[in-house]
Specification:
Elements lengths: L2 E3 L13 H4 L1 H12 L7 E2 L6 H4 L5 H8 L5 H7 L5 H24 L1 E4 L20 H11 L6 E5 L6 H6 L6 E8 L12 E5 L5 H19 L3 E5 L17 H17 L4 E4 L8 H19 L1
Parallel strand pairs: 1-2, 1-3, 3-8, 4-5, 4-7, 5-6, 7-8
Protein name: Histone deacetylase
Pfam families: Hist_deacetyl (PF00850)
Keywords: Hydrolase
Length: 300
């Protein structure tokens, strides 16, 4: 069964200027339900992540400032969000949803989080609409509890997963792979285990060629027993914050290729949705829904 973490708080209200990006968190499950790709049974609402699990990844002082709403105005601006108790609850539920998704992925092969992909959050900072790094938290949870021995993080968001790279810089049991726009945010990049910076305007054929020449060898060499996939759709030509030129069909083929490899190698994969900022919300929702459709087709 395809299991998907979703809670209404994912789309919690924000001041003007912040609301549009949150719409997709309601519209994605709504569309999938409407078309019959999923039923309500596929959705689950995560609990609030405990502090112990947060502190496996994030610095205690940083977490306390988030929890107590004492993060400095400068650091709040860096996150892109005004700090509220509801926002912190949202972040904790998203991260718990990714942890829960790992268990479902081990049972069914694949699982999703409607939100997540908060890869700009480092050990002691938030940035770019990311406060707690959900996939890093889940990876450390798997390692700490001896559930997995070696993890591969595949980050295909248009922006480099700088927070994830920094968190696992000295962790040999996690391999971080980020394929992203070279001349895009974050402008100060961290070093992933493998970074592939892409030139502006790259289209489907070249993008997929690079991915297909890289990923099989990476999986063969790393031999992970768990994969996290960040499937941002800000690689689309229409995206206002991305500088690449993929079509929705190319983005769907990207997802199909990643999931076919995971399934071929029998490696469970948890998917967080990452970015998507096209001016027309329909483009964002359709591209994200394609990821679910492909998974449903391949696994179920």
């Amino acid at each position: 069964m395809l299991k998907i973490a979703y809670d209404p708080i994912y789309a919690h209200p924000l001041p003007p200027g912040h609301r549009f990006p949150m719409l997709k968190y309601e519209l994605i499950p709504g569309q999938l339900l409407h078309e019959g790709t999923i039923t309500p049974e596929n959705l689950f609402s995560p609990n609030i992540l405990d502090e112990k699990s947060i502190l496996l990844t994030h610095d205690a002082n940083y977490w306390q400032q988030l929890r107590d709403l004492t993060l400095s105005p400068k650091d709040q601006r860096r996150t892109g969000f005004p700090l509220t108790a509801q926002l912190i609850e949202r972040e904790r539920r998203i991260a718990q949803g990714t942890i829960d998704g790992c268990s479902y992925a081990m049972q069914y092969g694949v699982a999703f989080n409607v939100a997540g992909g908060t890869h700009h959050a480092g050990t002691n900072w938030g940035e770019g609409f990311c406060l707690l790094n959900d996939q890093a938290i889940a990876a450390n949870y798997l390692l700490y509890n001896a559930i997995c021995k070696f993890i591969l993080i595949i980050d295909l968001d248009v922006h480099q997963g700088n927070g994830t790279a920094q968190i696992f810089e000295h962790e040999p049991r996690v391999f971080t792979f980020s394929m992203h726009g070279d001349k895009n945010f974050p402008f100060r990049k961290e070093r992933s285990d493998l970074d592939i910076p892409l030139e502006d305007g790259i289209e489907d054929e070249q993008y997929l060629s690079i991915l297909k020449s890289t990923l099989p060898t990476l999986i063969e060499k790393a031999k992970p027993d768990f994969i996290f996939y960040l499937s941002g759709v800000d690689v689309l030509r229409s995206d206002k914050l991305g500088k690449l030129s993929l079509t929705k069909e190319g983005c769907k083929e990207r997802d199909r290729y990643v999931l076919e490899l995971c399934r071929f190698h029998n490696i469970p994969v948890q998917i967080s949705m990452g970015g998507g900022y096209s001016p027309d919300i329909k483009d964002i929702v359709e591209a994200h829904c394609n990821t679910y459709r492909v998974a449903n087709e391949l696994y179920f």
